[in-house]
Amino acid sequence: MIKKIKTIIAAAAVFAAFAGASAIANAQDYLWLEAEDALTNGYSVEANDAASGGSLMVVNTKTSPDESYQLSFEAQIPSDGKYDIWVLATNTGSSNYSPMNWSINTGEGVGGEVGAKVYDHKIGLFNQTITWSKLSTEELAAGSNVLNIKINEKSTGGMKQYTSAVDCVVIVPYTYMYEPDANMTRPVKIPHSFAYVELENPNNKTYFSSAESAHASGGRMLFAYASTNPNDTSGSEESMEETLNYTFVVDDEKEYDIWYLGCDMTAAHLSGTKWAVDSDAVDHDRSDNGNGVKILNSAGGDGGIPLYWQKLGTEVLSGGIHTLSLKYTYRNLSGSGRSQFVWADCAIIVPKDWNFTPPADESAEDKYPSCEIARFDAKYFAEEYMKGDYSQLKDNIELPPTDVLTPGGSSIRIAGGDCPVGEDGSVERPYFDKGDLTFELPITAVKENHEGVYKIPARILALDKYYTGEIKIDRPSSQVSVDLKLNISEESDITGSVMLVAAVYDENNILLSAKVTEEALDRELKTITAQLPQYENAAYVKVYVLNNRQLADKLCETKTQQW
What we know:
Layout: E1 2-4, H1 11-27, E2 31-34, E3 39-41, E4 44-47, E5 55-61, E6 69-77, E7 81-90, E8 101-104, E9 107-110, E10 113-123, E11 126-140, E12 143-151, E13 162-173, E14 195-198, E15 209-212, E16 220-226, E17 241-250, E18 254-262, E19 272-277, E20 294-297, E21 305-317, E22 320-329, E23 331-332, E24 338-351, H2 369-385, E25 411-414, E26 428-430, E27 437-447, E28 450-460, E29 466-468, E30 472-474, E31 479-486, E32 496-506, E33 511-521, E34 526-531, E35 538-547, E36 550-554, E37 559-562
């Protein structure tokens, strides 16, 4: 039997402390600018409970402005860097609204990439769609920057008049990789202790496609099978190549190993592959022989196409934004002409000192990329948040928040299951005769239903042989009592006895009387009592509890009480 300590850790309070600190830091990194706070020419304020801040700025008229209808936002940028600029406004890509022109410093443009629809707002006679749109990514200097948003022509469709609504603008560091949603979720800085890249989503346009695969990270893979490049009809040797670029971010300057999961890069019947980081010369070969575990790609037809973890190489990278380039070349296929044949899933950029090596067992359940990402996330969480000494546990573990952002986007579960630490942080201490419990405290990360575990060495100390409660002294009757229990398991043959010693002294510290009570103990909690004689000149009583077999072994602190 094990005694379970019932204390419940207030994880919500712990999370609030972490979240509060995070919010303070993030508030200095991005700007959320309400349109109603901007300087305006021709826009007017309209209320809408669904809008950010409860209102938005609107134009709806056939009247031509002197120059343009305009909103000017003063943006106090905290530091030099690359920033994404998003606007929550009428759909910038629709002919029903006036084209939206924008400018900031030397950057300028029209409209932008259309993102999530958020709500509808009635402008004139019709409901208009209010949508997130990405205006641009710009290099901005620290200090005051002015963003202008304006319309100077009528819509070509719809009401064919000057029609626009702007709710708010978000200017956020590019490294956040922020994409606003229908809930207007604020930007949060994602940690980048490592990076992983989905290869089916390159930065540049390509004729490569993607295919679904149950084993792939994110459920899809990069795919190409073509004898010619439809984007290049020159017939030159360069047309026999295709380079794909991918952006990734790491936080710290250090050495990173770069791993690739795809078809064998050097197989004669597949496309040859070169790589580089932050270089136009994409000419590096992989550094190993494709000795990672084989994964069958379920999208590759009968039996699947084998993929391998392959180490591209090791690079010293500074903290910040980087570009991974992969160049695929044509190869001769047996019995056919020159064709490009590529299957690729993902790349992982991981600190060299993490010593990442793919599992060697081809039948291993944890060989898939989501397992590796989950393992990295578990390591990140354990090292970032599970700080402290877990080698002398007597009380419950104070849990850190489990819903923090992880670099790979995993969810975190701490302990539980077969672990002697419960999911609420509760610790179960063994009985005295069972001895200390040594184990590994698991931090589990879950990514796309795959689990990764990072373990922390831990030890739960056994209960003391005796449980001794508070010594109670009842003055009117001069009675002394204490609760006692022998902390041994049911199958133990250990027995014991204790002595309760109570001594009465006068004001000159002269012993007047001593009372000793001895009792044998069983496993159950019991109360042992000593009745003291009455003395008119008694000044104080001193009480302590001893193990009768080892008289020097005090079972609890001596208690002295003045009379």
